[in-house]
Amino acid sequence: MAKIPKIIHQIFFQGETAVPKKYQGYHETVIAHHPHWEHYFWDEAKSRTFIQEKYPWFIEVYDSYPHRIQRCDAIRYFILHYYGGFYIDMDVECLKPLDDLLEDYELILSKLVGFNNAIMGSVPKHPLWLKVFDELQERKDKLPSNSNINALLKKSMPYYVCYSTGPMLFDDCVIAGSFHKCSTVRVCPGYIFEPGAPMEIDEKIIQQNSTEHSYTIHHMASLWLPLHHRIISAIFSVGAKVYWNIISLFKKVRWAEAHRTQRSN
User: Fold this and answer.
1) Has UniProt tagged this entry with the keyword Transferase (predicted)?
2) Is 2 contained in some domain?
3) What pTM value is reported for the model?
4) What is the domain count for the chain?
5) For the segment 224-251, what is each residue's pLDDT rounded down to a tens digit?
6) Are 162 and 70 in contact, with CB atoms under 8 Å apart?
7) In the chain, which residue ranges form alpha helices assigned H by DSSP?
8) Vertex 180 angle, CA 76 and 54, to 5°
9) How many other CB atoms are there within 10 angstroms of residue 32's CB atom?
10) What range does the domain containing 109 cover?
């Protein structure tokens, strides 16, 4: 059985010297707790070169994304497919080493309302990534057809990113392939990596703020959002959890549809 290699990947497209002080502090906690792991830092130029050299069939889609965050989303999947290891967002603070989670698992996932792509562990060439690659191409110019989602929301930048390259795409791929049901996959409840974020327990969305059992804290800075979206979020106290507010809504719609179907049968 293959094991997840002790490699940590982090991405900041503007380059390591441009990392904000707060992010640099989080980055240093990751390094400090993993002195014997390899650390790969990816900027925009290195990421594009990697795709062009290792996955040239995807470069046209990669270059065509209108938003930088979409390329940042996409590259992490290819990195994990090729190298394996852990991908960790730059706004993730590490509280203790990840070594105890590895055991003999081939995939380690964070389960919030859906499966998040902010922190993920994988062996190289795990089949999940092939499903993700297919969906990245399929969704490049598409929006979900679900009629219960508000048309304005579906056309918004955050929703489009979430659906085309982000957590919604990732969650759909995990579930479609039933990867979360495999014995070689470790599904970590939200408080392990992302305490304080909305998480799903028995079809109920709750928040658990305690870090007693947490390995990391995802601060969800959401700097990828345009300024006007960040302002709107602040006004309505939505904060940095925009992704998961969107996915929560999407999940509730799915549950309602499933329950209506059951009643009609």
Assistant:
1) yes
2) no
3) 0.84
4) 1
5) 555 444 444 443 344 445 555 556 666 6
6) no
7) 21-32, 44-54, 59-64, 68-83, 99-102, 128-139, 151-154, 157-164, 167-176, 190-193, 227-235, 242-264
8) 25
9) 10
10) 7-264
Mean pLDDT of 56-75: 97
Which of the pair, 1 or 65, is modelled with greater confidence? 65
Check residue 235 and give its pLDDT.
Answer: 39
Structure tokens at 107: 């995939």
Phi and psi at 213, nearest 5°, equal -110, 15
- For residue 68, being part of any structural domain is answered with yes
Q: Tell me the CB-side half-sphere exposure of residue 99, using CA atoms within 13 A.
A: 8
90: nearest Cα among 37, 157, 41? 41
Element (H, E) at 262: helix 242-264
What are the backbone angles phi and psi of residue 217, rounded to the nearest 5°?
-125, 125
Residue type, 238: V
213 Cα distance to chain centroid:
21
* Type of residue found at 45: A
For residue 244 the two structure tokens come to: 């998961």
What pLDDT is recorded for position 237? 42
Per DSSP, the residues of 223-239 read TTS-HHHHHHHHHTT-T
Residue 171, pLDDT above cutoff 70: yes
Q: How many residues does the chain have?
A: 265
Q: What angle do CA 65, 71, 72 make, to 5 degrees?
A: 150
CATH number at residue 123: 3.90.550
In a domain, 1, yes or no: no
Question: By mean pLDDT, which of 106-115, 160-169, 204-213, 254-263 is the weakest?
Answer: 254-263
Instruction: Write the CB contacts of 214 (distance below 8 Å, at least 6 apart in sequence).
Output: 95, 191, 192, 193, 195
Structural tokens at position 199: 């998480």
Beta strand 204-207 with 198-201: parallel, antiparallel or unpaired? antiparallel
